[in-house]
Amino acid sequence: MPNSLLWAVDIFGRVYTLATAGQYWELCKDAHLEFKRVSAVKQCCWGIACDNQVYVYVCSSDVPIRHREETYENQRWNPVGGFCEKLMPSDRWQWSDVSGLKHQQLDSLVLPSPHWEWESDWYVDENFGGEPTEKGGWTYAMDFPATYTRDKKWNSCVRRRKWIRYRRYKSRDTWAKIPSHDDPKQLPDPFNDLSIGGWEITDEPVGRLSVWAVSLQGKIWYREDVCHPNPEGSSWSLIETPGEVVQISCGPYDLLWATLWEGQAMVREGIDRNNPKGSSWSIVEPPVPENGIMHVSVGVNVVWAVTKDRKVWFRRGVNSHNPCGTSWIEMVGEMMMVNVGLNDQVWGIGCDDRTVYFRQGVTPSELSGKTWKAIIANRENDRSHTGSSSSLLSAGCFFGDEVRGSGDSLAPSDTETSSETERPGLVSEYEISLGNSRPRPESSREEEVALAGDGVGQAQGFAPAPRPDSAPAELPWTNIDLKETQKTSSPSAACYAETTSLSSLGLFPVGLEEGYGADDHPLWAWVSGGGCTVDTHTVLKWFTVQSGLSTSMQTLSLSITPAQTAAWRKQIFQQLTERTKRELENFRHYEQAVEQSVWVKTGTLQWWADWKPHKWIDVRVALEQFTGNDGTRDSILFIYYMFHEEKKYIHIFLNEVTVLVPVLNEAKHSFALYTPEKTKQRWPIRLAAATEQEMYDWLALLSTSCSESRRIQGRPSPQAIWSVTCKGDIFVSEPSVDLEAPMHPMPCDQMFWRQIGGHLRVVECNSHGVVWGIGYDHTAWVYTGGYGGGFFQGLASSTSNIYMQSDVKCVYIYENQRWNPVTGYTSRGLPTDRYMWSDVTGLQECTKANTKPPSLHWTWVSDWYIDFNISGGTDREGWQYASDFPSSYHGYKTMKDFVRRRRWARKCKLVTSGPWLEVAPISLWDVSIIPGCEEGSKDSIALWAISDKGDVLCRLGVSELNPAGSSWLHVGTDQPFISVSVGAFYQVWAVARDGSAFYRGSVSPKQPAGDCWYHIPSPPKQKLKQVSVGQTSVYALDENGNLWFRQGITPSYPQGSSWDHVSNNVRKVSVGPLDQVWVIANKVQGSHSLSCGTVCHRTGVQPREPKGQGWDYGIGGGWDHLSVRANTTKAPKSVPQEPEEDNFSRTTDLEEGDGGGESNFFNKTMLVMNAVPEVNGSAVTC
């Protein structure tokens, strides 16, 4: 779980943050301002200070906020002087934007506010479409405007070049005042409220935000162009409203509510990706006519409101299709305000005690939650106060579960109340807005104190005890505290105002601040959870305080580190082992009573039959495990089945099994079992269980038995080979010394793979045991040194270093339409067309109703939405056009386009466990670790990464003892990158988003980020997408699956000279520290079937032949990523011998298999598949 922040403002205007992993409120670093309201998201927080001005607080990050300014210099050819600055009257400006319509000189582009600074001076961009231009960066064309090329031709009459300059946002971790460049006559009034949201409206990675504000005159303003590269926005736009507005709330999607002075609520409709400001307003009546809505807060599918009598209400039936909802439900409790955060979690501030409360039990299936729970975390600067525990405990934990006496009441004393009522300045601005400015009668105050003192049957002093003539007592709050809307009228707001403290809302005026005492409970005025991530698996420390222990005992308990605990466990285990050996020494002369023991487990499963027609048949399975005299264990798996009414069986020795893979789908709880023979056939043994738990029990038992048969236990070695399947499962293999032997290498289909808990998309390792991974949601994870997790329990998993892990991915379906001359585009296609709702291939029907998550482990966390972030672009509605199915799609309609499609996406979430810890807070797209360093070197391990926005990062402080590192160092680039690789001797190569390659110069331990990028031209007419660097070799992969080798790399010229084609049909490549080359092939043919995603090893790689000779392939059927960058295991030197026939066929001309089972090899340099007998239905396909 990422460490996110809850923001709050106390009654003195000071802003505090509370981390989800913390226990203390921390004062905002820039504390010289006093605030009334704040509204937060993950990356920033907006606030209104007491001067009614708007400020933004951008959280610090290792990745800077950069914005590129660009302008073009245009020239025309003159017969006398050649290209010059003199243009024709009809030409564009000499200095202009890309369109040529706007005059844009270098000195006209200035910083938008004092919060920005220039990184460097103007310079010419010499990159054009992924290819370097000639000196000067000029591109040529026949006229303005036209298609430009980097080569000058005889008819090139005009030319232009692009000048770029970067500016950096410098005001981070401080409150920056929002500048206003509007017309002074149209400047907005001072603001009274604001709200930010809308970051989920669009799927673009620019991080756009919607900032809404309410002025003192009741007008609504919208801040234009607020996004990640421009956190301040550009200007304010006035939004027309049907009345005067008091308060506004914006959700992360398209939900926007506001409250009117009359007590009604307004709902903004028509908000979408192309119109974030919406189009119209709808009115929603309050729950009770006598008490209008005072405060409202919205989330994704929820709306919470507080009426003028401080009652809390929940709006039923709210969603993107019905933003107004259906009806109100009253919730038990009285709040001053509520706030809905991420995942529709809810926070509130109590009306009487000013405590921040958290709504427990909020889940996607129960959005209203169950009960309120007080957050009793203290402030950071009060840690040293020993008496704070008792005062915090007096705030209580649960409503209605405890009884509190009069001495524990948090209400002010009569003396404090009388002194407040004598000061007219104590009436808060919020109360004035509610029409409640009358002083409170002393008798009412005394009556309330007396009622609060009667704690019998009261819900922890949060709500006053009911009067004798009031409604019946409320139900206990241990259950779901929902109330249906009552038709009987409740006391009016005016009557309630007379029994309310004068300072119950708003802030104390300046000059009356008094510091909290050691035992004082913080009093809060506002809370914002828009940047706080809390889910059902989050463990919060906000509700408990250490008490009952002396200071010395607490210090002792905190001083015991996990490393010391692990050392003690190891020491105790060694002592017990030595004692056992001593006790058994006296019985060594006795004969063995039992030579071997046999243990059998039986059960009923289903087996995918080998014969046609392939179908699931019921079988009996028996696992027979026996232990020899030397303590070694071996196992045999028997599968008994009926064939033509005859009982038969097959058996598998588990010491021959190479991998066990769970096959997760909605139909069966199945897993696949591979042996070398089954790998050649591409047809594994597939078994299915009746329940998910039974399947995992068998899978864990068989995996453990396979590891015991091969005597492999515990954590993987530092030289292990790591891989990830297309389902996200993680596997490791211990490399043999003969794996990279030059003469007789071990076939890689005999490698044994075992599963490690967790779920990743990418994994990267090095020979020092440092392993990093990236999830589907771009979250970075670091390996903790454990093993097991997930479905591995007990002895199959380590007792420490196992943590909870979550991942989020998108499921895509396509809506297809064909053009009809009468009705236009319609869902009625031709008989030969694909399904109108299908997958990307169009061969499988996938509708919104029948599309399920990838497996039972995944749960939906969003609704279906149109995905605009797709290759080729889309129009305003998300459609892509083409001449026919299937074809090349583009985002605009032409006269020849008769079909169109658009992609729908839905997010799902997986929660599991494994030996992984999250590395926050930057999301990553790619990561690379230097393969190995010199033994005993004290230099940190080089680790480079690409963020999900394309920024290049260098991790500092990575070592064996601290694999997570300490901080990120940003490396400047002129464009977004997609891949990076750091090889031996700190060779850093990267691939940009336009497909061009770059080499980073002067990278060393003393200069970890290097000094400059060298542009490397990509292969002709190809765009690269991945690069991998070994000791002396550099391999790259393009978008068409072609594998390229960089020729001419020397220590004096590390950029190399040219690209040499090696193979095609490649999905991923990994080059190891010994220059060994491993790839994931797209399609591999076996004797029985074809599999997608196969691990292949390049054989014959030698210093004199770095490209190798052929391919040897191993496990396949669903593998998606591989990392051999930790394998430094060298084969022992041996005398060359004549190779055997079978091994020779693997390392020379590898030809396509003919179905014989033993000769299904590739071409010498190509991984090309042509005719295949049958697609494997048993393999773990992608």
From TrEMBL:
PROSITE patterns: PH_DOMAIN (PS50003)
InterPro entries: Beta-propeller_rpt_TECPR, Peroxin/Ferlin, PH-like_dom_sf, PH_domain, TECPR1-like_DysF, Tectonin_beta-prop
PANTHER family: DYSFERLIN-RELATED, TECTONIN BETA-PROPELLER REPEAT-CONTAINING PROTEIN 1
Family, as annotated: Belongs to the TECPR1 family.
Domain PH: 668-707
A single GO molecular function term of this UniProt record: phosphatidylinositol-3-phosphate binding
Region (Disordered): 406-448, 1128-1159
Entry's Gene Ontology cellular component terms: autophagosome membrane; cytoplasmic vesicle; lysosomal membrane; nucleoplasm
GO biological process: autophagosome maturation; regulation of autophagosome maturation
Task performed by this protein: Tethering factor involved in autophagy. Involved in autophagosome maturation by promoting the autophagosome fusion with lysosomes: acts by associating with both the ATG5-ATG12 conjugate and phosphatidylinositol-3-phosphate (PtdIns(3)P) present at the surface of autophagosomes. Also involved in selective autophagy against bacterial pathogens, by being required for phagophore/preautophagosomal structure biogenesis and maturation.
Compositional bias segments (type: Basic and acidic residues): 439-448
Name of the protein described by the UniProt record: Tectonin beta-propeller repeat-containing protein 1
